[in-house]
Each structure stands twice: as C-alpha cells, then as structure tokens.
C-alpha cells in the first residue's frame, strides 16, 4: 500500500504558539503546510491575512498550499503568490474558473481547485487537465473539527475516474474530518493526499499523528 501525502492544516493550532507549531511541522514527515485563508464572506469565518502569512513564510521550511476560502480570489492572487508554492481556489467562488486557474499558473504557482461537498464534479470537466490538484472538501468549509462526510469516499472514486478518462495529471486531496480511523478508507478510495488539522494538533504527539496518517499500516 502506498503512503499518503499529508499536509497539516494550521487552522487548528493554538495561534499563541504558532512558532512552536511551525518548528514541529518542520521536523515532521509532513509533505507540505496547508494554510486556510477565510474572508467571512465565502465562508462564515475569518482566519488571517498577509501579516500572518509573512510570519509563516519567515519561519516555515515546508512547501505551502494556500487554500483561499474567499470570494473573488482573483483579486488577491498576485499578493498570495508570494507566500505559497500552490494556490487552491474554490470552484464556487470563481465566476470564470479557467481564467483564475491560468492566472495562478502565470504567477508561477501550482493550481488547485477545491469543491464543497454539494458541488458536482462536472464543474471540473473542462479544467481538469490544467490542474495540479483537486481538493475535495469532506466537511462544509469554514471551521475545523467537523465530522467526515461519508459520501466523500464515493466522490473520490468518481474523481479518480474523471482524471483517468481525461488523461489528466491532477492528484486528489481530501480536506476535513480526516483522522486515523478513516484515513485507510480514504486512501483505498483513490486519494493521494489528506489535509488534517484537529487530528494532528489535538494529539498528544503531533509527529506520531502525522506519521500514522502517512502510513495507515504502521499502527
């Protein structure tokens, strides 16, 4: 069985100890850092903006995926491109999704598209070959600590079929409710990577938690 790629989502960390969190992630087996940017409009929560991203950029040693849970993300792509190797936008937030994807690539970043649980895979039909990543939300976006939506497993399988049918290269991320109890099913359904927050940062041993998510067979 292959290992999953794992990206800790810092939304679930204690921000009073952000520096300590970044030190832990730097020492971990995590493949990259997942940073959720929320505007209080596209999702009912506000996370943080460029001052925090600047601090992360200064102290973090892992690649960064910026997950923009914001309305009209094309307004800020140039600014955010300074702080992440990949920018992931929501299909639901983009009036012209193909154009936004091309903007991201033109800025020198990898391009990802996230889909909310209710959003059909049909929205990716004509952009899938341009994407580096598809991020399937397994919870409704905006808050950490939610339970995994089981129907996501079938959606992963259907997305895998779409990628193969279109001869695309995008890999599949799953974000939300991921933990040691469901990660094996997520892997077996065809996912390449998981985003995890609460299951890592609420653990007594975040390094071990990341390791267990990367390789469900080590338990």
Automatic annotation (TrEMBL):
The active site is at 36 (proton acceptor), 175 (proton donor). Substrate binds at residues 9, 67, 142-145, 175-177, 197-198. Its EC number is 5.1.3.1. GO terms for cellular component: cytoplasm. GO terms for molecular function: D-ribulose-phosphate 3-epimerase activity; metal ion binding. Pfam families: Ribul_P_3_epim. Keywords: Carbohydrate metabolism, Cobalt, Isomerase, Manganese, Metal-binding, Zinc. This is Ribulose-phosphate 3-epimerase. It comes from Salinimicrobium profundisediminis. The lineage of its organism: Bacteria, Pseudomonadati, Bacteroidota, Flavobacteriia, Flavobacteriales. The gene is rpe.
